[in-house]
Amino acid sequence: MKSIVVFCGSSDGYNEVYREAAFELGKTLAVLNIQIIYGGAKVGLMGALADGALQNGGKIIGVIPYFLKTKEVVHDGLTELITVDSMHERKLKMYELSDGAITLPGGWGTLDEMFEMLTWGQLGLITKPVGLLNINGYYEALKALTDNMVQEGFLNEYVNETLLMSGSISELMGQMEAYVAPEVPKWITKKTV
Questions:
Q1: Taking all residues of the chain, what is their mean pLDDT, rounded to a whole number?
Q2: What pLDDT, on the 0 to 100 scale, is given for residue 184?
Q3: pLDDT tens per residue across span 135-153
Q4: 0.85 surpassed by pTM
Q5: What are phi and psi of 26, to 5 degrees?
Q6: Strand positions, DSSP E, 50-185
Q7: Do the Cβ atoms of 100 and 117 come closer than 8 Å?
């Protein structure tokens, strides 16, 4: 992978461990010479991610809609800033520029970005890996929910397995490098749970 989109919160959260992990992910990807694509902000985990990359010689591209750019949240040290018209265009541009996605803790927007990529993968529209960096157990409840979706018959097990997860950056990167997308989209062949 040469380029990874990172979805993450524009807030820091209450525990400093989230900000530290975002900075560390930015640093790690910079050292690995992997370009980062992200939402373009200087605040919250987004800012920590960007700072981690930039302070370690990394390349980072921000993608931001016009209406957010005017709110003075843009990071001014980015390698490149791409401005788009809408949130929908932002997600599409991020996808186009990346070889995979890593999701850090965040709120509605972070989950929206991740779930859209997972849905595209489920439908066979994309084959890129999508991973959760499970910092401080943040995504344990989400994993329990997706497992319950399988148990209750709303999600196929093989689709659930497309969401990669680890609390370790290096382990998650290994999972993403080894990822092979399912061959048959859900709507073509229905598999039993």
A1: 92
A2: 60
A3: 999 999 999 999 999 999 9
A4: yes
A5: -60, -45
A6: 60-65, 80-84, 101-103, 130-133, 163-166
A7: no
State both tokens at 94. 């991020």
Counts of helices then strands in the chain (DSSP H, E): 8, 7
Evaluate whether 74 touches 50 at the Cβ level (below 8 Å): no
What are 133's strand-pairing partners?
A: 166
Q: Which residues are within 8 A (CB) of 43 and not within 5 positions of it... i.e. 6 or more apart? A: 10, 11, 73
Residue 130 has φ and ψ, to the nearest 5°, of -125, 120
Q: CA 71 to CA 2: how far, in whole Å?
A: 31
Please spell the DSSP secondary structure of 52-87, one letter per residue: HHHTTT--EEEEEEHHHHTTT-B-TT-SEEEEESSH
Q: Are 80 and 68 in contact (CB under 8 A)?
A: no
DSSP state at residue 184: S
Query: Given its phi and psi angles, is residue 91 left (phi above 0), alpha (psi -120 to 50 degrees) or beta?
Result: alpha
Return the SS3 of 1: coil
61-73 pLDDT, tens digit each: 999 998 888 776 8
| Token reading at 34 | 């992997």
